[in-house]
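so the lab meeting is tmrw and i was supposed to have these ready like two days ago... anyway. pasting both below. for each one the top line is the aa sequence and the line under it is the structure tokens. i havent really looked at them closely yet so no promises
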Amino acid sequence: MKYRQLGSSDIKVSEVSFGTWAIGGSWGTVNDGESLKGLERAMEAGVNFFDTADVYGNGHSEELLAQATKGKEDQIHIATKFCRSGDIHDPNNYTEAAVRAYCEQSLKRLQRERIDLYQIHCPPISILRDGSVFEVLDKLRGEGKIREYGVSVETVEEGLLCLENPNVRALQVIYNIFRQKPEQELLPRAKERGVGILVRLPLASGLLTGKFKEDAAFDKDDHRSYNRNGESFNVGETFAGLPFEKGVQLSRQLQWIGEGRGNMTRAALRWILDNPNVTCVIPGFKNTAQVEDNLGVLDVEPFSPFDHEKLNRFYHQEVHEHIRGAY
């Protein structure tokens, strides 16, 4: 395992880390026993960073992380997020009283005295422009409740706005072969400002595994079913904003990336890690087999400049026009 500095903070995180949305809920059937085994396997492999949120299973993923990392609090870093269990458009959701309550609830579920990275969870840009929530986070940081803070964003514009705040230490962004826009300006600018980049949805909700067919069915409680067209939250969070059937077709055109790289999953993760402005990828998982598959990227050689250019052309010529929602 290799480790990368989280921006200008003193935290080093494994370049392959993991997100816990799937084991908390909203990705279909999940088994806590399998989830805990997956977490244990990841840590055995050197993973020292996990991303979660208070709304993942209504706090369930935080509780699972507490169980899995008990006694390892100094070695395993946890990032969690807040605001989406309330009305994200209401300014009262970001007052000191509200944020402090969110923080204390997460600390209790995580069974920790401090959150390593506390992130605002995809708030509307009006909240970011107002900026008063950052003052609240500064206060919590000063009290030792949180070590660093950042923002999970939906768009490049939101990310650039966050970079104007000198104490933001990390941005969480959607970035993958199907969503290359952040690399043009946001990622290099973040690097210049000493802001770490956590890459979520690196596999575009599974499209970049190459395993789906157009008639694939998902459980009713899986966001790939109920949010396929942005019915419940930002459409970009599901299949990178692509219509599912189009995404499947496009993924077939990418099968070549898996040749000599194990499979498409590992190749798609390798493409992201080739970018020096990325701190880590945080793919999801529901079992040990998926953890192992994601860890397989560690044995994959970087893409050649020729292949990177080929994939960049593919994005601009075949993918870009089909992405829905602001990004």
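ok protien two:
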Amino acid sequence: MNAFVQKGISAHLIPMNPDFISKEGLDTFFDVDTLLISLPPRLTKNEPGFYVKQIEAVIQEINQSRIRDIIFISSTGIYPELNRIVVENDVKTPEESESPEMVAAENLLTALRPDRNVTILRLGGLLGYNRIPGKYVQGKKDMTTGSIPVNYIHRDDAVGIITTILESGIVNETFNIVSPIHTTRREVYETSCAQFDWEAPTFIEPIEKPDFKVISGEKLNQHYKYDFKFPDPLQFYYSLEDVGA
């Protein structure tokens, strides 16, 4: 929180478990026209239903506020591996999803329409600065997923797209947010390992071709004009220190 304060941002630390532990500061926090919700689900660490209850608690406060525009940060991890190009309408219900709780949370928020404008942003794998793909696989042997296309987004572009939406106007739509180029994991891993002189992983051809998905970001282009700073994951900007914070 100190990092926000140092940048002149009014910051609030409001714990949830899963409801708000205290009402202190909530009136001030929700006294805004626009709310951006970026709440990591941590689905493997919490009991089932925990994330949905958190979103329900947020919605309860929204309903008592003057908020009219909402952006919810979701994830392309909700899509199953369909072995094809995937678009927003491929997952609309929890039953269709690889992450039912996240889609349930999306649907709770979109139910606020039309009284409020709600945009859902399904972000691809968030990389850039100290989030370096090669860091997580350096030295690994005989990986079988090298041919899978990636669905990444650089942090600067994620921020840029959100800023563009805020400036242009929030619409009642769901958008995939991914870089337009989908190179292979092998190329991404080897390139980022070489950048930092790490031992690159090795790859073998699996007996069966691994399942994949290619996330389409075309719908965003139909509503907003945005030029990617890093359209190609092979050219993402990285740093061992989080200098972009």
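from a quick look at the 2nd one: Residues 2-130+151-181+214-235 form a domain with the Rossmann fold fold (CATH 3.40.50.720). Residues 50-63 form the longest helix (14 residues). will dig more after coffe
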